[in-house]
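Input structure tokens:
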């Protein structure tokens, strides 16, 4: 399905590309980096985002074959994801001693979807820590929680696992950039295989 791009979005990408050079990035990495920068107006994501093209290619294939459910930590991330129904269990999650609502929501979602999901964490570092503790076998983790408490640490923990992921080094992130990263994969045409 082709997507109609609004002239404002076209102009935004023209400005973005006039300010930073993303032309050397592999196709899906470029798509993710540019969409995150477009959604945040923050060109520092060019050097702050961490991912690998092979991971993005595998997740792209899973998403476009409708084989991978998309799970979000909060409704705000889900609201930003277009062209795809998502699973978000935060509304029925409850906090308990040592367990935040976001972490409980991850447990509930994993029981629902099982392995092979694309997990999109854009708000709660505790959700990302819980996902890592549960050994969820994800197709991809978009781990971009924001904040001064635990955000950078949860993303570092994600990278240390070696799981297929999109993360960033700094404390910044959030719902908009997490949704933008998965939207980039949903909007992208299948990249040509390179030898």
């Amino acid at each position: 399905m082709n997507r109609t791009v609004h002239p404002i979005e076209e102009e935004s990408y023209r400005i973005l590309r006039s300010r930073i050079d993303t032309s050397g990035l592999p196709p899906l990495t470029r798509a993710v980096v540019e969409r995150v920068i477009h959604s945040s107006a923050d060109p520092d994501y060019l050097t702050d985002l961490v991912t690998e093209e092979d991971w993005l290619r595998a997740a792209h294939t899973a998403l476009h074959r409708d084989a991978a459910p998309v799970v979000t930590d909060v409704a705000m991330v889900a609201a930003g994801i277009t062209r795809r129904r998502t699973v978000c269990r935060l509304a029925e999650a409850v906090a308990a001693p040592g367990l935040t609502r976001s972490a409980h929501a991850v447990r509930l979602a994993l029981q629902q979807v099982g392995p092979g999901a694309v997990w999109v964490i854009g708000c709660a570092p505790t959700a990302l820590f819980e996902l890592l503790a549960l050994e969820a076998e994800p197709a991809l983790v978009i781990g971009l929680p924001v904040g001064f408490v635990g955000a950078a640490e949860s993303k570092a923990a994600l990278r240390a696992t070696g799981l297929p992921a999109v993360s960033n080094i700094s404390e910044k992130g959030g719902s908009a950039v997490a949704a933008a990263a998965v939207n980039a994969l949903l909007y992208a045409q299948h990249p040509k295989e390179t030898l």
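Strands lie at 49-50, 70-72, 86-87, 118-121, 140-143, 165-168. The first helix runs from residue 7 to 19.
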